[in-house]
Write a structure and sequence with these properties.
Elements: E1 16-19, H1 23-35, E2 39-42, H2 73-76, H3 93-106, E3 113-114, E4 119-124, E5 130-134, E6 139-142, E7 144-147, E8 171-174, E9 188-192, H4 196-206, E10 211-215, E11 222-223, E12 226-227, E13 230-231, H5 243-258, E14 279-280, H6 284-289, E15 294-296, E16 299-303, E17 306-309, E18 314-316, E19 319-322, E20 359-361, E21 366-368, H7 372-387, H8 395-412, E22 422-424, H9 425-445, E23 461-462
Parallel strand pairs: 1-2, 1-7, 2-3, 7-20, 8-19, 9-10, 9-19, 10-15, 11-14, 21-22
Antiparallel strand pairs: 4-5, 5-6, 6-23, 12-13, 16-17, 17-18
Helix pairs in contact: 1-7, 7-9
Bound molecules: flavin-adenine dinucleotide and NADP nicotinamide-adenine-dinucleotide phosphate.
């Protein structure tokens, strides 16, 4: 913990409800715990780790049997809890899930988590407090709410559905429910999408299927896992160097390594590197070059088991896998209170709601890099705020910051529902640290007063 410890006037910490004990929720829980802030963390599952728990009881994990991380170990680990030295650069999901288990035990936060208890509804009362209904039927009231419910669990299917897709007689599934490649054995498989799910699943299919087609509506830069013998995300990336320069260097490195994607029959990217969420794969280009995956443009329609592509080619298929991304969802909020239509949600630095001062979001960002250290920094930031050690800028300044950020994202990224919460890993951490310092100065000037909207009040518990 750094800075002041919340001893200003009226600074007793708020009572907080934290939703979710995935890698984001446990980082926030640790930050609250070490600051002495009272909280309840509700977790639907019987264990921590969210997405990284294969066959998670909560039904929300997208992990498949052979999932390995694509952000390297040092990029993914929390700053004060390194992953074991024995781990490889890109560990398996079982190792990642074990790491999160060890984290909660190491920092003594397991007992703070209420397992197998979901938040069914969170409504704001007239007083401003949160009335939280649990799926056990119990209702509790809190001064502040932290949301860490993940954003890769509600599958987005093609919108609108492809004409004729409802009559496809084979197996159609979303990447979220993919488990392993036994479903592809000797089948003709079409995988749709150019994100990381599509890469992994097409590669897995290519080892056992009769035919594998990879269909894309637009091209991407494919980032190898290693360059110069180092995990690619460990190549120095200094946020003080202008983005355009870093972009040019990285794109040139990728081109030098593999040549342009169109050389492999993939669509030519209509953007420069860093203008789409990175698609990382050490294997896809090989499998294409071995003739085991055939690139295709987007699907146009289905006629029975025939899949027609927009270039007028077509194939017979037994399985179609839609790797078409996810919807940011908060099923416990009334839609008109907080929602993310088309994955769009406006928050100050991805954490603070500009109009609701006692709700905070952790891990609701899509970095070029791993989420965990960013969620860790966000948790510490919110913890400081609740204690009065960090004060937000004035509302107009936050709104201007949000508007500028939205505009920068719109200008930089390819228009897509998957590019609504993008950040650059190093840049985000750098600017967050600066903002925390600026907010600490404001807090000092304010006499370290905790935010009025999160001031503790009589907490009621009932059914
Ligand atoms: C296939 C796949 C691979 C990925 N690989 C990487 C990677 O290599 N590196 C990386 O950085 N990111 C990766 N990601 C992104 C992924 O989102 C993060 O790794 C990470 O899981 C985010 O953690 P989280 O805690 O925010 O969300 P989650 O892991 O989804 O955890 C959310 C938790 O909240 C709980 N919860 C949800 N709703 C409620 C409720 N109403 N009440 C109580 N509890 C609730 C859930 O049970 C769950 O435990 C990947 C995503 C996918 C889909
Ligand atoms: N090994 C790993 O670590 C690993 C594996 C899988 C996933 N992940 C992570 O999980 C998250 C989700 O990845 P994801 O690949 O599942 O989803 P994603 O990144 O959102 O990618 C979705 C893909 O589907 C395409 N798409 C969406 N709707 C379409 C439509 N109607 N027609 C044609 N194409 C359509 C998108 O194209 P547009 O770009 O044109 O919208 C994009 O190529 C990411 O953070 C990713 O890094 C990691």
């Amino acid at each position: 913990m750094d800075g002041h410890t919340g001893t200003g006037e009226g600074s007793a910490p708020a009572r907080v409800c934290l939703i979710g004990a995935g890698s984001s929720g446990i980082a926030a829980a640790k930050a609250l715990h070490e600051r002495g802030i009272a909280f309840d963390c509700f977790e639907k599952s019987d264990r921590v780790g969210g997405n990284w728990v294969f066959a998670n009881k909560n039904g929300m994990s997208a992990a498949y049997r052979d999932l390995f991380i694509n952000t390297s170990r040092p990029r993914m680990e929390y700053s004060d809890f390194p992953m074991p030295e024995s781990y490889p650069d890109f560990p398996h999901h079982t190792q990642i899930a074990a790491y999160f288990d060890e984290y909660v035990d190491h920092f003594g936060i397991r007992e703070k988590i209420v397992f197998e208890t979901g938040v069914a509804n969170a409504a704001r009362e007239r007083s401003g407090q949160w009335r939280v209904e649990l799926d056990t039927g119990e209702t509790r009231t809190y001064d502040a709410l932290i949301v860490a419910n993940g954003h890769h669990w509600n599958p987005r299917w093609p919108e609108p559905a492809f004409p004729g897709s409802e009559g496809f007689p084979g197996l159609a599934l979303h990447a979220h429910s993919y488990i392993d490649n036994s479903i592809f054995k000797d089948r003709r498989v079409v995988v749709l999408g150019m994100g990381n799910s599509a890469m992994d699943i097409a590669v897995e299919s290519s080892y056992v299927a009769a035919e594998t087609y990879l269909a894309a509506r637009q091209g991407v830069w494919i980032v190898p896992k290693y360059i110069f013998g180092k995990p690619v995300d460990q190549i120095r990336n200094d946020p003080r160097v202008p983005f355009k320069i870093r972009q040019r260097i990285t794109q040139q490195l990728i081109k030098t390594y593999a040549g342009p994607p169109e050389r492999y029959g993939l669509p030519k990217p209509n953007h420069r590197f860093g203008e789409a969420h990175p698609t990382v794969s050490g294997r896809i280009l090989d499998r294409i070059q071995h003739g085991t995956i055939t690139p295709k443009p987007n699907i146009e329609s289905f006629e029975g088991s025939r899949v027609n592509f927009i270039d007028a080619s077509s194939v017979e298929a037994d399985v179609v896998v839609y790797c078409t991304g996810y919807k940011i969802s908060f099923p416990f909020f009334e839609e008109d209170l907080i929602s993310a239509p088309e994955n769009h949600i406006e928050l100050f630095r991805r954490v603070f709601h500009p109009d609701i001062p006692n709700v905070f979001f952790i891990g609701l960002l899509q970095p070029l890099g791993a989420i965990m250290p960013l969620a860790e920094a966000q948790g510490a930031w919110v913890g400081d705020h609740l204690l009065g050690d960090y004060a937000l800028p004035p509302a107009e300044q936050m709104r201007a910051d949000i508007a500028a950020d939205q505009e920068a994202m719109r200008r930089r990224y390819v228009a897509s529902k998957r590019h609504t919460i993008q950040v650059d890993y190093d840049d985000y951490l750098y600017h967050l640290a600066r903002e925390r310092r600026a907010g600490a100065d404001r807090a000092r000037a304010n006499g370290y007063r905790p935010p009025a909207a999160c001031r503790p009040s009589a907490v009621t518990t009932g059914s």
